[in-house]
Specification:
Number of strands of chain A: 28
Number of helices of chain A: 2
Mean pLDDT of chain A: 89
Largest sheet of chain B: 22 strands, antiparallel, barrel
Oligomer: heterodimer
Structural class of chain A: mainly beta
Structural class of chain B: mainly beta
Strand order of the largest sheet of chain A: 3-2-1-28
Largest sheet of chain A: 4 strands, antiparallel
Distance between the termini of chain B: 64 Å
Strand content of chain B: over 45%
Strand content of chain A: over 45%
Helix content of chain B: under 10%
Shape of chain A: globular
Chain lengths: 348, 650
């Protein structure tokens, strides 16, 4: 009898757990919304993670310290959610803090990195982390350990997974670069390197599989007349050829790129303006101005195409997150996040 | 690429701005009467030099005799413990700057033997690099002093004097050992004949500074040792004095020192490979002509600083060389009866060599100044009127500085003082020419400073005491702050006004019995420094400047029994905001130190042995966010003095 009860109890528990999981893939208060990584103040300070709930229009700042009673570390570069974990990349602390995504309770730390920038989950066991030390680190997700590296060019930065390949931008880091590398995740080898444009900064993939890259152009601090213009580039994912390019006017330190829910329209920021372009447009010059706003982080809500972007203001006070409708014509909300909000991660 | 590239560049910029610190200075030989000396802790307020400054300013003179038992002290240590002002320090062996009365580090002018030693690229001094034992006299003048000390003296001035007279012979050998590899060896010698005197100081000190601390910013909060915090410093100071005859004397000096140190990571960083080499050379020659009623001073000095900053982690290497050739002539005379006049002219040639500017910078500065003083002996009152005007070859619109002051007896044992002044600070070379962001259009900061105070003294049998209170208010216009520019690089701007108001209290008591001497001192300073405040109506809602505590309090007590002395020094520093919107603040902290000293006197020599425990409560605190500070630390020092007939300090 006891055995039966135990079995029934276990089944019920499983059923409830299964129901909960199905309804709410990330049990906890941070299951539906947007994680915002805030780089934090200069010098010695700590970055933070904010959580914005679009339904209630509320933001909760510094949730990591709130839950774990300690700061994240210097320069919180990005946050990524993979499976049931969130991976907070802390650049100047050379680590990734791993938390349970729904609760943000600390679950471990990945150390042994140098200047990590972005995390990209590959499969249950493996992830890549771009590191400005000049490589992509291979991470064992069971042990939270670095198991190897894939050498890149200068300042490997943002990455996307397309099929079994990872596309990595060599964003220049403290140097100059103009290349993109493609790594086969089965072999962890670079299978192709191509020149895209000066200082590539961000990339997305559209519904056709095309890879779009925004480049900020080269800077010459001492002789600004030597600067080169940035560009928007479209790449054929099959033969890695550049199928389109449009030049932007002037340079931008870190232009951003985002793709909509249907993956048929991209938004990109450049020099204080946000533009849109239909991915099927015959000419890449057909981009349209959406609004004139400072944009330090850019994202599109995968549920409803609402536009989110951040303004870091003076980089010393909490920055602002703006939320606009899909057309960019109406502001829905604006909230204060942490200092220098730099990346957005939508959780659905 | 987000902010990192940009951030790193500007983090370096800020570091270089802040870390390109070294030192220089200025002296005002003057005359006249004796004054009062006020002691805050070890402080004696001596009215002896009142004519050097505008009357009515608060002057604190450190009692260096009492501090000799601690040969390893840096100027930052003693000002942190005894000045009542906030010293912002990155920890043992790290950069330290002072913010007098809630101003920024750039608002304190630091002088050595009459020469301003704030380097022109950053115009502030790292006071952790100045060994205290080099100096025979250290005075801290709070309040606006531009009429006398020129650009920068909006918060106050620090006057360091190492010159020896001809009546003091000394040979001292000091050594200190402490935890975390702290070692110091120093030799100081001063000899004089009837007309000639010289003094030499040489020193070497090093420290690993690898203390343990709980890293509250890491997973599991591990106890770690501080890394890359080692520091090594050595130097030589040589000075000479020649009395040609009763009217003429000549002084000369040469000071060189070098410091090489690591810059440790903060708790939020994984590691640091940043290192900094500071090398400075200073030399001067001065000629004094003293007639019965008139004194002339002609002096010339050259002050050179070299800084090399490297960070192998981000492949950064930065060098800068700056220098000032400073020439001054002044006259100090009795105009009539009780009216005195000091007037002078200063010519400076600055130079800066660095790849961080687009070209070499060699600006010239010329200024004239005067200070008229009138005393009314029967009332014990002194009035002063000061003015200064400076011209620069690369910066126009430098406003004149003016000051008006009074001090004098109000009743019995009560003295009063009052001072109002206008002051200025010329933007630094980095502010104007740094690539990228330097803003050549910056205006000079200007301030109106007001202060008033009273000093009470009393004596009853074996007990003496004094109490001092000061209130002050400043309005600083065109405050310069580095802000992000359109394209994500930083650029300094004149942001508007900062208003500062506050008060300072200090109480000192001394009681002696036939065998024992008790002393205790208590101080409490409080001040608001309000960012972007345009009027005093803004006091309630404008934010406090970052890293500017409202409250600073100290309590020290000592008991001396024959040749033994036990001293306790306690300090409480109020909470400090770390961001401009005042949403995040570091908690107030307390530190307490104990010293136990024993003096042995032999026939022709003396030995002082001193044991110190710093932070005896082992309190974990941060002056700057996530920069760990040492816990309980022990030091032992020995000072051996060879006694001469003429000597004896002990």
């Amino acid at each position: 009898m006891k055995k039966k009860l135990l079995i029934i109890g276990a089944l019920l528990a499983f059923a409830f757990a299964a129901c909960e999981k199905e309804d709410n893939p990330l049990p906890g208060k941070y299951s539906q919304g947007i994680f915002i990584s805030n780089e934090g103040p200069f010098m010695d300070g700590s970055g933070t993670i904010s959580f914005y709930d679009p339904k209630t229009k509320t933001i909760q700042n510094d949730i990591f310290e709130l839950v774990n009673n300690r700061p994240l570390g210097n320069i919180v570069q990005s946050v990524e959610v993979f499976k049931d974990k969130a991976y907070v990349v802390v650049n100047n602390a050379s680590k990734i803090e791993v938390v349970n995504a729904g609760t943000f309770e600390s679950a471990g730390v990945i150390e042994g990195l140098s200047q990590p920038r972005y995390f990209l989950g590959i499969n249950e066991e493996k992830a890549y982390v771009s590191d400005w030390a000049g490589h992509v680190a291979i991470i064992n997700l069971n042990k939270y350990e670095k198991t190897g590296t894939v050498s890149t060019s200068h300042g490997p930065d943002r990455m996307i997974l397309s099929g079994s390949n990872v596309w990595v931008l060599n964003s220049a880091g403290m140097s100059s670069d103009s290349t993109l590398m493609i790594i086969d995740t089965n072999t962890d080898k670079v299978i192709h390197t191509m020149v895209v444009g000066g200082n590539p900064s961000d990339l997305v993939q559209d519904k056709e599989g095309n890879i779009w890259v925004i480049c900020g152009g080269f800077f010459d601090w001492m002789n600004p007349e030597n600067n080169t213009d940035g560009s928007l580039v479209k790449i054929n994912p099959n033969d890695f050829s550049i199928s389109g390019r449009t030049m932007m006017e002037g340079t931008d330190f870190a232009p951003k790129l985002a793709v909509n829910k249907e993956k048929n329209k991209i938004l990109f920021s450049y020099n204080g303006k946000i533009y849109s372009l239909n991915t099927g447009a015959s000419s890449l010059n057909a981009f349209e101005l959406v609004m004139e706003k400072t944009c330090y982080a850019l994202g599109i809500d995968p549920d409803n195409d609402e536009i989110y972007f951040s303004d870091p203001l003076d980089f010393a006070q909490p920055g602002v997150i703006y939320r606009y409708d899909a057309s960019g014509s109406t502001m829905i909300d604006s909230v204060r996040a942490g200092i220098i909000p730099g990346n957005l991660r939508f959780i659905r | 690429m987000n902010g990192f590239f940009w951030y790193e560049l500007h983090r370096m910029k800020i570091k270089l701005l802040i870390l390109f610190l070294i030192v220089w200075s200025h002296v005002f030989s003057q005359t006249i009467e004796s004054d009062t000396v006020m002691e805050l802790n070890e402080v004696v307020i001596s009215a002896k030099r009142i004519q050097q400054y505008s009357a009515g300013l608060k002057v604190q003179s450190l009692n260096l005799g009492d501090l000799r038992k601690l040969p390893g002290l840096k100027l930052s240590d003693v000002l942190s413990a005894h000045s009542g002002h906030f010293v912002k320090t990155y920890g043992a062996g790290g950069l330290a700057t002072i913010g007098i009365r809630g101003t920024a580090p750039q608002h304190t002018a630091v002088f050595w033997n009459g020469f301003n030693i704030n380097p022109p690229n950053i115009a502030m001094a790292d006071i952790s690099m100045l060994p205290l034992f080099l100096f025979n006299n250290v005075e801290l003048i709070s309040g606006g002093g531009s009429t006398i000390t020129g650009s920068g003296a909006i918060g106050g001035s620090i006057l360091l004097n190492s010159q020896n007279g001809i009546n003091k012979d000394q040979l001292s050998l000091a050594t200190q050992f402490g935890q975390y590899g702290d070692k110091l060896t120093a030799l100081k010698a001063a000899f004089s004949k009837s007309r000639f005197g010289f003094s030499t100081s040489v020193w070497f000190n090093s420290s690993e500074n690898n203390f343990k601390y709980e890293n509250i910013a890491k997973y599991g909060k591990p106890v770690e040792r501080l890394t890359n915090a080692d520091a090594m410093q050595f130097g030589l100071l040589q000075e000479a004095f020649l009395k040609i005859n009763d009217k003429h004397n000549v002084k000369a000096g040469f000071w060189m020192q070098e410091r090489e140190a690591g810059i440790p990571p903060s708790m939020t960083m994984a590691k640091s490979f940043a290192r900094q080499l500071d090398r400075m050379l200073r030399g001067y020659l001065e000629w004094n002509i003293e007639h019965e009623k008139t004194k002339y001073l002609f002096k010339s000095g050259y002050h050179y600083d070299f800084l090399n900053y490297t960070d192998s982690l981000i492949d950064l290497r930065s060098e800068i060389q700056v220098g000032i050739w400073n020439n001054e002539a002044n006259v100090n005379t009795v105009i009539a009866g009780n009216t005195y006049l000091t007037a002078g002219a200063v010519y400076q040639l600055h130079h800066a060599r660095t790849e961080n500017y687009t070209e070499n910078k060699d600006p010239q500065h010329f200024s004239v100044f005067m200070l008229a003083t009138r005393t009314i002996p029967e009332l014990h009152w002194t009035f002063s009127l000061g003015a200064r005007k400076e011209y620069a070859s690369d910066h126009s619109g430098i406003p004149p500085a003016l000051s008006l002051g009074w001090k004098g007896k109000i009743a019995g044992m009560i003295d009063g003082r009052m001072n109002i002044s206008s002051n200025y600070r010329i933007p630094t070379l980095n502010d104007r020419f740094w690539v990228t962001g330097g803003n050549p259009d910056l205006k000079a900061e200007t301030s109106i400073n007001f202060e008033s105070g009273a000093d009470f003294t009393f004596r009853k049998k074996n007990t003496t005491g004094s109490y001092s209170i000061t209130i002050y208010a400043n309005k600083i216009k065109n405050w310069i702050t580095w802000l992000p520019a359109d394209n994500f690089y930083w650029k300094p701007e004149n942001i508007g006004s900062v208003i500062i108001i506050g008060f300072e209290n200090s109480l000192k008591l001394e009681h002696h019995t036939p065998l024992l001497l008790y002393r205790c001192e208590l101080s409490w300073n409080a001040g608001k420094s309000l960012y972007e405040a345009s009027s005093f109506k803004d006091i309630k809602h404008k934010p406090q400047l970052i890293y500017t505590p409202v409250h600073n309090a100290a309590f020290s007590a000592s008991i001396t029994y024959r040749t033994w002395e036990l001293q306790m020094i306690n300090k409480i520093t109020g909470s400090r905001f770390t961001d401009r919107t005042n949403t995040n603040k570091l908690p107030a902290y307390y530190t307490g130190n104990f010293n136990l000293a024993k003096r042995f006197k032999m026939k022709r020599s003396a030995l002082i042995i001193n044991a110190t425990v710093n932070n005896f409560t082992n309190h974990a605190y941060q002056v700057i966010e996530y920069r760990p500070m040492p816990g309980r630390t022990f030091h032992l020092s020995l000072i051996f003095d060879l006694l001469f007939d003429k000597v004896s300090k002990y």
